Amino acid sequence: MHTNPIxxxxxxRTSAKAAxxxxxxxSLMNLTAARPETRLGVALLGLGNYxxxxxxxxxxxxxxxxxxxxxxxxxxxxxxxxxxxxxxxKNIYSYDNFDSIADNPDIDIVYVVTxxxxxxxxxxxxxxxxxxxxxxxxxxxxxxxxKMMIEACAKAGKKLQIGYRLRYDPFHQEIERLxxxxxxxxxKMVNTGFSFYGVNNSNWRFTDPKLSGGGPMMDIxxxxxxxxxYATGEEPVAVTAQSFKTIMDKLxxxxxxxxxxxxxxxxxxxxxxxxxxxxxxxxxxxxENGVYGVDxxxxxxxxxxxxxxxxxxxxxxRQQTAxxxxxxxxxxxxxxxxxxxxxxxxxxxxxxxxxKAARKKKRISLL
Amino acid sequence: MHTNPIxxxxxxRTSAKAAxxxxxxxSLMNLTAARPETRLGVALLGLGNYxxxxxxxxxxxxxxxxxxxxxxxxxxxxxxxxxxxxxxxKNIYSYDNFDSIADNPDIDIVYVVTxxxxxxxxxxxxxxxxxxxxxxxxxxxxxxxxKMMIEACAKAGKKLQIGYRLRYDPFHQEIERLxxxxxxxxxKMVNTGFSFYGVNNSNWRFTDPKLSGGGPMMDIxxxxxxxxxYATGEEPVAVTAQSFKTIMDKLxxxxxxxxxxxxxxxxxxxxxxxxxxxxxxxxxxxxENGVYGVDxxxxxxxxxxxxxxxxxxxxxxRQQTAxxxxxxxxxxxxxxxxxxxxxxxxxxxxxxxxxKAARKKKRISLL
Lengths: 367, 367
Known about the structure:
The structure is a homodimer of 367-residue chains.
Chain A lengths: L4 H9 L2 H8 L4 H4 L8 E6 L3 H10 L6 E8 L5 H8 L6 E3 L14 E4 L6 H10 L3 E4 L7 H14 L3 E3 L7 H11 L6 E11 L6 H4 L1 H4 L3 H17 L5 E7 L12 E7 L5 E7 L1 E11 L3 E4 L8 E5 L2 E6 L3 H14 L8 H20 L3 E2 L2
Parallel strand pairs in A: 1-2, 1-4, 2-3, 4-5, 5-6, 7-10
Antiparallel strand pairs in A: 7-11, 8-9, 8-15, 9-10, 11-12, 12-13, 13-14
Helix pairs in contact in A: 6-7, 7-13, 8-11
């Protein structure tokens, strides 16, 4: 069932064309210049760690889209990107001249990878410029701003995908299927957590709540929230939550650790934790007849799945490659996006309820 | 580090004495009759499933104690026990004549395995009869009753052990050590759950809150509570909790599912779940430098331990054998009991706070 990335890499290595790609860094774009370009052009907007170390490399493996341009507020980054990915000058934008991307037929999709609170203005500008939009998670810092993004893309007639990479990972798709088809009976409880230990004061995530909108809940807990929602296949009816802080001089205006609990219409429940001072990385689904999950669950890989203490295997899947290809295909075929803006909005409504539950120390209904 | 029960069994199989034991059911007691009996005599009080299928077999492997008698309210059970374990008539008691056990030098220890709310009266009678007491978990149905049991044993000058079998399991002892010695840095978070799916209406646990004192929290969640306490090596300062019920015509007067969260003086936190309508069985400890745990964690075995996604192995350990032998040794050597009444009382105080937190829907301080 699962695609084995090792096999795919081995296959590529035995291909002369691929060998040339591997031997000559930066030649990937040139290779395809001779044949008509059918892949959609992606411009990455915001060249931080995720764009640099995950998305750009992932675009070296996509079949339906390719890295065609960049948009950056840091001119010093341009030279390296140009050289590494053989990008023409005309496809390189600053935040100032970004709106002129409207006139560039090379760019079909803008992938917004800025700090969270900048997602909306850039997504709006991209949509107004006639480009489809991928917006990294969390979608924005409030549900109101998520709604505005959805409206902007709808008004422009452009598709919007939220960068929920794990929805395109085979283990997580299997978790979704097992629940939907009740393969092991009804889902009764989900236990999940995603945490890491270490606050880095040089990163906006940990220092600027106006940009981040919150702490680990926004940043990594959102994967658990997604996991619970696709594991149960239901929307929650209520949440409770508890927030904790032990390091008082760090993480200004945001939580350090938050626990939350969810109730679903079927009676299923969920127990969740996320923290910047712990280590969690698991998704565990308890059903009438068994237990299955992914552990490690939420990192880039290798991930490992299990059913009733039997391994489902362990592998690296090109999550972002699959995610961007799926979006490109839904544009090409005009089919629904698997993780549209509405999905980001639903999570943001949950997160707001979780924060409210923690703040008010009471159960918050989502009905 | 870990005792391998397979090796021990293999060793026993190659011993002529053991071979005779295996070949002739019920001969275990006779074998030792010829040499001076140094093992302490245990009387099991309450011959339900746990005594029948776990404790009595476990006493076939103990080195420092042995099954010497029974106390039962069900005369029809006597014949089978007598035959199977070769018990003399003089060591068989009813609940009516139980107090005369005071005059029986064969019996050193009474192991109380009745429904929870009967632990206190039987433990008191056993202590008054001059016997050391093992009391199955949960210790009783309230902290007041736990205190009374501690007082009764202290007054009689008799030792009291609570039947926390997992404290005598090598994986769980390793969890305790790793935290105590901060082998992977300070403990930051514990995630744990113990649940099973299926309510059996023919058992007092599910039907009689006056006997059980509660639902899964009392019955199985208590293992998580223990796990958290030895994983952190700390006593909690506060708890929050949420109780859920989906099947309204079952589990009268008790919870069906309960989640609870704990805060510790160091800033460590814990996330816990227990339920009769789900499947959980894991203990996961997150520290500054790593993650380790046991999964499956709380059943009789095989259990499996891990450190940073590397297996610590998987095996069956004779938990109850180790537990009863440890108690017998602490009597013989007059050394402290590893899981004394005070340990059961501490858990009961936590459970009461958890129930209160769920009922009042607010954080309950334990300071």
